[in-house]
Amino acid sequence: MFKKVLEYTGAYRKTTYGSAALMFLGLIANVLPFFLAYQIIKPLLIKESLAWQTSLWLVAGIALCGVLHAVLYIKGLDLSHKSAYNTLKNLRISLQGKLESQPLGTIQTKGSGALKKLFVDDIDEIELLLAHALPEGLANLAVPILIYAGMFVVDWKLALLSLCALPLGITCMAVMYGIGMKEMKKWYAAGKKMNDTIVEYVNGMEVVKIFGRDGDSYRRFEEDVRAYRDLTLAWYKACWPWMALYTSILPCVALFTLPLGTLFVLNGFSSLPDLVLILCMAFSVGPLFLKALTFMSTIPQINHKIGELEKTLNSEPLAQNDGSFTGKDHSIEFEDVCFAYEEAEVLHGVSLKAAEGCLVAFVGESGSGKSTLAKLLVHFYDVSSGSIRIGGQDVRDMSLEALNDEISFVAQEQFLFNITLLENIRLGRPGATDAEVLAAAEKAQCGEFLERLEQGISTLAGDGGKQLSGGERQRISLARAILKDAPIIVLDEATAFMDPENEEKMNDAIAELIVDKTVIVIAHRLPSIIDADLIAVLDKGNLAAAGRHAELLSGCATYQKLWQAAESSTAWSVSVKGEAD
Length: 581
Ligand SMILES: Nc1ncnc2c1ncn2[C@@H]1O[C@H](COP(=O)(O)OP(=O)(O)OP(=O)(O)O)[C@@H](O)[C@H]1O
Ligand SMILES: [Mg+2]
Known about the structure:
Elements: H1 2-9, H2 13-45, H3 52-100, H4 104-110, H5 112-133, H6 135-154, H7 156-163, H8 165-203, H9 205-210, H10 214-249, H11 254-266, H12 272-313, E1 332-340, E2 345-354, E3 359-364, H13 370-377, E4 385-390, E5 393-394, H14 400-406, E6 407-410, H15 421-426, H16 434-443, H17 447-452, H18 470-484, E7 488-492, H19 500-513, E8 518-522, E9 534-539, E10 542-547, H20 549-555, H21 557-580
Parallel strand pairs: 3-8, 3-9, 6-7, 7-8
Antiparallel strand pairs: 1-2, 1-4, 4-5, 9-10
Bound molecules: adenosine-5'-triphosphate and magnesium ion.
Adenosine-5'-triphosphate is lined by residues 108, 341-342, 346, 364, 366-372, 412.
């Protein structure tokens, strides 16, 4: 595990080693006073005199050791934290890179709570390992080992007595580890579930309130919080007695040395000064040893979390390479595309060709797979089988960045970052000037609502863009696409939230945007797409037919049904309007 974590330290590996060395020296300075004190005690034991100047030097040495210990240890901690926090930064960045290269499904299945836990809490735990357990723990282990070696040089019989407490303490510790590891998975899973529930509870607050489900939702929340508490307490309850035992036994290295050592001295097996020296050494070792072992008790937890982190870091990324876009034009071809989000397949062998510069409309009932097909084109997911090509080049044979440069996607669900609306639009083309952003916003009919906002385009979008209405979010997204001006445009229900007046203006903006582009439009309102070059009718994940409006109206039953439904809904809205008049 240490090896794995050290791999993440990268350029800071040497800093970690340096911090361990400084802490080691700091600890030597910490135990040295015991030897110096012994030098003062020894003459008393063997009834020799000690010059007062020597005593003074020894006392000064003890004080100096104290200062040295503080300076070296603090510097060691400083270095270890520098290395640890830089490693955490590297880990978070590589985790973000990994997630970005994975299919959206993988990310959504994990859940935002679990991902937040991974990004924030679990990675934070590695700080304990890098800043403390590794340098501090190792130094606290190395110094006692050195002292034990010294003890054997002084008097091997007394040294052996000091070692007697170790097997007992280590056995208690091993039992604790065994229990800890057994319960770890359950405890970790409960933590993950609690995180997910809390995030879901906060995100779904709106629904909870509308449907008056505070009780239900709170109950689930409370259950998970309780389950986490119960598991944590059960875990501690099982571990604590053993922890109490080993923390009491291990520092008592004098447990056997004092009584049995006295017998040895009385019987002439060992000398009194040696016994006193061994006791001094033993007392200096205890606290260090305990500290080292305390760090070790956290290792099963950290180990498990690193395992979880590795799973994410090593999970299968989207099929893509570093290739640039080399398609001969911007025609789009879906060839026998099958796709399943999870188990159930939602697209069953869809084949469709759209020539460069043409306007293609995807129509079909709700859930027929229109958005899924669009998301596959922008490579949010990998197809299960078949292929999608742009200008003859498979989307898997180019990098996501290269693909992104060719496509503007206005998704059905809009997400805005909590930065200003200006910056949200600028995401479409990061190099754009403020004037260009404002012009795009104007074209996307944002002007009217931006005027109403106190800070205009400099207003923050709120968490996920929640400060804006659905229609307003849609217009910001469209402004992004206008600014980006990519050769392929995908509009998924881009005007779904618009009122008729704004829709007309927005359609004008779209009409301007799509000139000379290859466009895919997904629309529920069929009248808006009757002039499309190609209408693809989707039915339960199958392509029922593809053609122009007139052809489909005479030859495709699914389209006829959709058209009738569209006409009757128009009639319905007119009659409702008529009644109101
Ligand atoms: N993230 C997801 N995970 C699992 N299943 C999904 C996911 N998104 C969509 N589906 C399922 O895939 C099928 C196609 O969904 P899709 O969103 O493509 O439909 P759609 O034609 O765009 O519908 P709508 O007109 O309502 O937007 C549906 O059965 C839907 O339940
Ligand atoms: Mg959809």
